[in-house]
Every structure is written in structure tokens, then in C-alpha cells.
Amino acid sequence: MRVLGVVLAGGRSRRFGSDKALAELGGHTLLDRAVATLAAQCEAVVVAGRAEAPASVVADRPQAALGPLGGLNGALHHAAAHGFDAVLSIPVDGFALPPDLIGELSPAPAIAGDAPVIGLWPVAVRDALDAFLAQDEVHAVRAFAAQIGARAVTLSRMPANINTPADFAALKDNAHGL
After folding, report:
1. Averaged pLDDT, groups of 10, the chain, 178 residues long
2. Is residue 178 part of a domain?
3. What is the DSSP letter of 124?
4. I want to staple 60 with a disulfide (CB 3.0 to 4.6 A). Which of 70, 72, 76, 154 is the partner?
5. What is d(CA 75, CA 80) in angstroms, rounded to the nearest whole number?
6. Is 61 exposed, middle or buried (0-12, 13-18, 19+ CB in 10 A)?
7. In angstroms, rounded to a whole number, what is the distance separating the alpha carbons of residues 90 and 121?
8. Residue 122: inside a domain, yes or no?
9. Strand partners, 24
10. Residue 75: Cβ within 10 Å count
11. Residue 102 counted as domain residue
12. Domain coverage including residue 143
């Protein structure tokens, strides 16, 4: 199975107060760490929701400001056009994940039950996601996952959920070896 990794990095970081993707931990940005996490597990990596990144970028689809599903949809269409079978998605702060994340989430579709932006998505769901995003409803990852019958999986290791400067400070204080 050919898997494309996507870092969902288009959030506005309102609660964080600055661009969370560029926050540094141990000399590396959170975005760099997320890309490296996927590069170790996927054939190729893209970043959604940013104009510049340490990997190829894909545009949100069908437009910007749709949240994580816009980035995922852009990655799914990119994956289909380049012969990938599935997309592994993680958030920009999702770098401390299991080394066999694909194995833990297989078979697709599946999401991390406690963090649904972490997911393994077959490219075949891109048309369903196009239709879901065309609706005038809330565009929640968990709702889309339920619609397509994605399994919720408990991962062996979850990343930190960094939303505020205090979350990041706590991570830095406990970041031995990161």
C-alpha cells in the first residue's frame, strides 16, 4: 500500500497566540518534527494549509479556511493524482506518535479515537469528502469519519495536544529526548 503523509498545518493558532507550527522545541519547529514523523513512515509527505513548508505543500480543497478536512481533502486528491492508495494525516503538533502508526490504524479508514485528525484514509473517500464539504453544516472530522464508517482506534502512544503557550511550556519542561 502506497501511503502519502499529510501534516495538517492550516490552523490559525488563536489560542496559542502565534504560529504554532513555527514554535521550536529542541532546535526544531513543531512542523519540522511532524514532517519527520511522517517521513519515517510514508513514501512521501505533504503539508496542507501553508504556503511554505519543509515538504511539498498542497492547497486546501475546495477552498481555504475549512479546517482540517479542507487540508485532508487536498491531500486525498493529490494522493489520487500521484498513485497513492491512502493518506496518513496528523496535526502539526503530532510528532510523538507510534513508530508503526500505519499498522495501528490499518485497515483504513480509521482515526485515533482521542484525536480524530490523526487518521488513515483511503483515497477512495475523496468524493465522499467533496460532498461532505459541500454541505452547509459543521465540517467536523469526527462527523465525516462516522459518515464513512471509519473505526476509532486507541493508539499505543498519543502526541501532546498543544493549544496554548502553557501547553507548550509544559511540553518543553518534560521534553527529555525529544
Report:
1. 94 64 84 95 96 92 91 98 98 90 98 96 98 88 97 91 75 63
2. no
3. G
4. 70
5. 9
6. buried
7. 11
8. yes
9. 29
10. 30
11. yes
12. 3-173
